[in-house]
Automatic annotation (TrEMBL), chains A, B:
The keyword Oxidoreductase applies. It holds the Pfam family FAD_binding_2. Residues 26-463 form the FAD-dependent oxidoreductase 2 FAD-binding domain. Keywords: FAD, Flavoprotein, Oxidoreductase. GO terms for molecular function: oxidoreductase activity. This is Fumarate reductase flavoprotein subunit. Its EC number is 1.3.5.4. The keyword Flavoprotein applies. Transmembrane segments: none annotated.
Amino acid sequence: MSAAEKTVPTKAKKVSEIQQWDIETDVAIVGFGGAGSSAAIEAADAGVTVHIFEASSAAGGSTALSGGEVYLGGNGGTAMQRQFGFDDQSADMEKYLLMQHGPQSDEAKVAAYVDGGVAHFDWLVDKNIPFKQSFLDERVVEPMTDDCLIYSGNEKTWPEIEHCKPAPRAHVVQMAGMGAGKVLMQHLQKAVEDRGVNIHYDARALCLIIDEADSIVGIVVRIDGKELNVKAQGGVILCAGGFVMNEEMVKQYAPKLTRCNIPTGNPGDTGSGIQMGMSVGAAAINMHEGFASIPFYPPSTLTFGMIVTDKGQRFINEDAYHGRVGTALLEQNSERIYFIVDVDAYGDYEKLNFMNADVVATGDSIEELEQELKLPKSCLTHTMKLYNEFAEQGEDPMFHKQPAWLRPLEAPFVALDITPGRGAIFPYFTLGGLDTKIAGEVLKVDGTVIDGLYAAGRTSCGIPRRGSGYNSGISIGDATFFGRQAGIAAAARAKESQVSDTAA
Amino acid sequence: MSAAEKTVPTKAKKVSEIQQWDIETDVAIVGFGGAGSSAAIEAADAGVTVHIFEASSAAGGSTALSGGEVYLGGNGGTAMQRQFGFDDQSADMEKYLLMQHGPQSDEAKVAAYVDGGVAHFDWLVDKNIPFKQSFLDERVVEPMTDDCLIYSGNEKTWPEIEHCKPAPRAHVVQMAGMGAGKVLMQHLQKAVEDRGVNIHYDARALCLIIDEADSIVGIVVRIDGKELNVKAQGGVILCAGGFVMNEEMVKQYAPKLTRCNIPTGNPGDTGSGIQMGMSVGAAAINMHEGFASIPFYPPSTLTFGMIVTDKGQRFINEDAYHGRVGTALLEQNSERIYFIVDVDAYGDYEKLNFMNADVVATGDSIEELEQELKLPKSCLTHTMKLYNEFAEQGEDPMFHKQPAWLRPLEAPFVALDITPGRGAIFPYFTLGGLDTKIAGEVLKVDGTVIDGLYAAGRTSCGIPRRGSGYNSGISIGDATFFGRQAGIAAAARAKESQVSDTAA
């Protein structure tokens, strides 16, 4: 059975099938997460009526479950970056993002995102979202503290370091501990409520409504067991998340992610928004890609260690971002992957680790470790010898780990098993979605716009397009930035139609 | 700009826009290659009228440009396999194909394909397609001779060899030299012509025609500069090839293939069939995958050599199928990939090679070769030492190259540069397409069938789903086998509608 056969029908209704309109609005938004709330704020600020339909009983979406990091920079730096002396030029950030996402980058979107980054940070601050005036110069997935500015990607690792001046770009919302996304969402939710937006919880969007000219004119939602027809003069904005929670869709579209084990998102990430778009001929793109991580720091000391296959071969600079390392793990032709560390690198692993990898061998010499791991004779021994010889000189000619994380490893050694599927934590989520223009207009495969339909957040395909190039904060940055653009565009379309109605 | 913005509009027309029907048929087929001809033969044999619309001025499609290999087996073996003593059990072939294509396999399709393989071979023979009674037990991409049966995948390589009893399954159409696909197509074309099928050359399909109930009722074609409306009672079968010739679509949907350099297919492989399907809400799946090869044999002696990265590391068993090796090359974190051989393995390379890789270094010792290649000190030397130690015992504990291809390599050495983008030939084509059921019915993303629409060949997503699991002959096997199913299904639907017309 093909995956599609198991998913929920989302076939669009024709306007001729609609007996009555139960709700009329200028803009209808599906999903009350980071993208939906940003769209609602902008549309309301443009002076049009807005209804949000959220399938769950509370606002938040996956944004509320996130670390509350927003990846922004460019134009000489955000207010926060400048305060700590980072002169973040747009050319560096743009080149960096294009390197990250490779041939499938949307260059126009990247340019718009970089150009608008400074203003977007100010917009978030204006919504009373708290950012502490601080820069935390540590290797962390998220701060454990309430600090703000961090390096959250591959800015300081090879090969990016050789091409783009690094700057810390993740702006973390202020909250002690991890998971500041909920603070971010509290403030976005309040901004939405303050603007008198009509919010419907436990309201499931079922399908789009399409007119004779193939324009989207509304949406059918189910509230309290009743199907309601919503007319949306300006358009419908799909901000319903990605599809990481739809096991069949992941298997069909992003099979490499099936080896990960912690789907990262909210239960509503079932791909329903993407499916609604596809049901009216929208192009879903980049569907095979996803974020896949092995969150091996803290403790950051593990970065001094060495990651090897069951051939005893290294394959990546261990100082790369955890998402790049996780993505590379999935690509290895190897039945096991090990993290090899010495006692100093092991450090506080037992206390701090959250990747949950087991110690599977220890050795008073590398030969002993090699034997205990049942690796082919001398393969790991040689790798270690070579690594140490170069590390002694602060060099890693093979994988270009930077000098800050290079030193010879010394016996005794410890091996952690980080093979996908063997207990360690591999969070993942999807990076494919509806093809959209900068303002969120959804595109058909032939490049024409579906009139009246917008998408943002992980329902669309945005800035992040490869697991190997992901940076913490780029999803929330993308969702809120392009959510705003969609809100502005749909509001403008509503106003145009009001003018033409008046004229007629 | 998103890729979609550059493609040709394929938006479906509504039946209400159609002024008159210029052609009326039971079954309309787009594309006269392997899939289209097989569909036409079956539909004609079922006694319905058939029109084929071929965009170019001759039959053939990519099938005619292929090696004329058809990958078939199971049920104890085809007539050809049995003749040479191969008892090819369905369980082995099925397991093998599922290993090849991994989590994205369509299990139902694989089962149907294996189950119908013996009969499909007989069907081809019945169409007078010549197969010589011969088995060529050599490592070849295609026979240079007119021989028939060959091993054309990873049947005898690790890990498949440990799980599925190997059998040669590529049945190569008889013709001296490479490119027997044209002989295959000549006979299929003749079978189509013999059945009185209406064939239109230089006839470009522009868009589907859809009725009020969202059924496909026909297609618009352009012939002699005129747009003609074709009514198809039984349905439209899209056999218009894949999208390898559409650079923007490849970049958007299958970015990893952009590093290859020889798009393999016919100029009509622009994705137009896939786009027509998507325009009416069809799900396109597996769009990121493709065949990517480095055709490094002949001479097969190169298989004795060693493939290494710019870290001097091996990464694959060199006796794997050229498509698996090519796919693995694209996944390496390495700026260069080298084939390291000794004089014996180099053998007739200069005479026989068609991969076109340059000799970039030679060395009287491995240390000298390592230096000449500017590799980090001792990395290649160690790899060679270890390889030779194990090869001496007929073992390859790291990558499991089989004993037949293992022997120590001896100085002097030669290095060929097989880095993608550095001159060597990397053929590629796409493996994504419309999601279909076994009988070719095209599916929407919600799993419902698009009434009246069928697809086969590379317009659909068939048996082959991963470059790493491709076998020569699986595309032609898939296209002809599932083309037939689509022809049978559309003919049956035409007959049903005739019955209901009569009843009414």
